[in-house]
Specification:
seven-stranded mixed beta sheet; binds zinc ion
């Protein structure tokens, strides 16, 4: 029998949620429990696992936990402290939800049983979201499984991204990774935000109100911070209304402020993160009473409404005479196409469809990625360098796209299991693996009126080549097709280059004369002595510079930092 195996109860191909049983030697660990129905887990009288670890508070990872706890009250459930506190938002309609989840610290392995321990690593995506590093040590060998949960490499407004560089060379035996967005490729987070802000700005300028269906936690709060800090909206008399479920998420965040990134804490020092009557745009709670709600929305100026995606969206459109824009997440990698789940919800509402038909409501999509794109997923895999990669979470065709990438197939054992399919994970002692492909770095672009700032990741600075690249602090930039090639300019080039126009070597002119220094003539034999002269100038006292024996041809091809052109 192999020491490692994985039995998925739910792999999150659609909206069935994620729930994975991992066995490490004699230990059984349940990773997440996002199942709506947990019958498969309660089939036996005994609990299906020795312990449960929950990565984050989203329903597709957590909604089955309460039922599981009620079925097996002694089965311990663990998560990060923030996740433990956010979990009850999954059961807002349930009475008497007990505090059953135990909080674990960040970045500090906790031993649960003989040789079995787990460490929580911040995973971006949602406040409190963790990736898990499971370790099982025997006298012969230590086995490791890394589970990403849902993860994002870039920083979002309210959560710092997964620290990829710190994971480099971790070499777990098994990596269970989410592949929600398949091989789709996204623009940088800041650019996604700017595009969305621009779209909202346009709608409001055209006197359209904007409706966002969002989950209780995550996207809605990200949008609120974006709206409160983007220059398109700050100081403007726009009312942003939040329904009671999203408001409950906001209130839960406010209780946990001291766990948030310092940028968020700084913001919150000057104004309340969400509710502040003194600051425009105003973020307010939508009244529960339908009459008051109508009054709130019937003003002459456009409003922005954030509501839970399960609510009947047409009620908002009916409450105001202004035209509405419904903004929904796009299908990853397919601009303009609506995300499949959102599409289902729209199709299910007859009144919404008729409003769309009548033109009172228009529909548009936006991208504010909550998971990393294909580049990020492969980057994580190559950084970790596991033997096995189990891909879960995401439409099965997206996972298949990832699994068919040659750069992954050549290096790892890839698995894309369905629910109920046991995956055996034999671990080789000497696993021969081709080297990871040359790392691609992601930078950030900020555009200004008079130029652009390129910010590069700090890890580039540790490369020995950086010194010569950054020697003078001056870069030469040129287009190569659609790619922009950056090249550091060296001291020597700078000296050789000066401000002088090109003059041919060997020409009899001041620029090639031994007496020409600092743009002046220093030959006492010349009538030009002491005068400023042009390098193309000439006088009879010309005396050629002897050829430089050390001179090397100039090399313009050293270490360009270059991105592959987009396919
Ligand atoms: Zn999630
Ligand atoms: Zn998820």
């Amino acid at each position: 029998m192999t020491e490692l195996e994985c039995l998925p109860y739910g792999v999150g191909n659609t909206d069935e949620g994620v729930c994975l049983l991992v066995r490490m030697g004699p230990h059984r660990i349940l990773l997440d429990c996002g199942l709506e129905q947990i019958d498969a887990l309660t089939a036996e009288a005994e609990p299906p696992a020795d312990l449960v670890l929950c990565t984050h508070a989203h329903g597709d990872h957590a909604r089955g936990l309460l039922a599981l706890h009620r079925a097996f009250p002694h089965l311990p459930v663990y998560a990060s402290e923030v996740t433990a506190q956010l979990l009850p938002l999954n059961w807002l309609d349930e009475p008497d939800v007990p505090d059953f989840c135990h909080a674990l610290p960040w970045r500090s392995p906790v031993e649960f049983a003989d040789g079995l321990s787990a460490e929580l690593i911040p995973a971006g995506h949602l406040p409190g979201a963790a990736a898990l590093l499971l370790t099982y040590a025997t006298s012969e060998r230590t086995y490791t499984v890394f589970y990403t949960g849902d993860f994002l490499l870039s920083n979002s407004r309210l959560a710092e991204g997964l620290p990829l560089e710190e994971m480099r060379g971790l070499k777990p035996d098994v990596l269970i990774a989410e592949g929600s967005y398949g091989t789709a490729r996204f623009p940088h987070r800041r650019q996604q935000e700017n595009q969305l802000a621009e779209r909202i700005h346009q709608a409001i300028a055209a006197s359209q109100s904007v409706l966002f269906p969002v989950p209780t936690l995550g996207l809605g709060q990200e949008l609120l911070i974006l709206l409160r800090s983007h220059h398109h909206f700050t100081g403007r008399a726009i009312d942003i209304w939040v329904d009671e479920r999203i408001a409950a998420g906001c209130d839960a965040y406010l209780e946990l402020l001291h766990h948030f990134p310092s940028s968020v804490q700084n913001f919150a020092r000057h104004q309340s993160l969400f509710w502040d009557e003194r600051i425009r745009p105003h973020v307010r709670r939508l009244p529960l009473d339908p009459g008051l709600r109508q009054i709130a929305l019937s003003g002459p100026t456009p409003a922005i409404v954030l509501t839970h995606y399960d609510t009947e969206l047409s009620q908002y459109v009916h409450a105001s005479l202004l035209p509405w824009l419904l903004l929904v997440p796009q299908q990853p990698g397919r601009e303009g196409a609506i995300d499949a789940l959102t599409e289902q919800r729209i199709q299910a509402s007859k009144s919404l469809r008729s409003l769309l038909k009548s033109g009172r409501l228009t529909l548009d999509t936006y991208l504010l990625g909550e998971h990393c794109d294909g580049i990020g997923t492969t980057q994580l895999i190559h950084n970790l360098r596991p033997q096995h990669v189990v891909l879960v979470h995401g439409p099965s065709n997206y996972l298949a796209d990832l699994a068919s990438l040659e750069e992954l197939q050549n290096r790892y054992h890839l698995h894309t299991p369905l629910a109920g399919m046991r995956v055996d994970l034999p671990v080789g002692e000497t696993f021969l693996q081709p080297a990871a492909p040359e790392t691609q770095y992601e930078g950030e672009l900020t555009e200004y009126e008079d130029g652009a700032l390129v910010t590069l990741p700090p890890v580039l600075l540790t490369d020995p080549r950086w010194q010569s690249f950054a020697d003078t602090g001056i870069v030469e930039v040129r287009w190569q097709g659609d790619s922009l090639v950056l090249r550091g300019v060296s001291q020597r080039e700078l000296l050789n280059r000066g401000d002088e126009p090109d003059i041919l070597p060997g020409t009899e002119c001041c620029g090639n004369c031994i007496h020409y220094r600092g743009q002046r003539c220093w030959s006492q034999a010349s009538s030009l002595f002491g005068f400023k002269v042009t390098p193309e100038g000439y006088c009879p006292a010309f005396s050629p510079v002897p050829p430089d024996p050390d001179a090397e041809p100039m090399d313009f091809s050293t270490n360009p930092i270059e991105r592959e052109p987009d396919e």
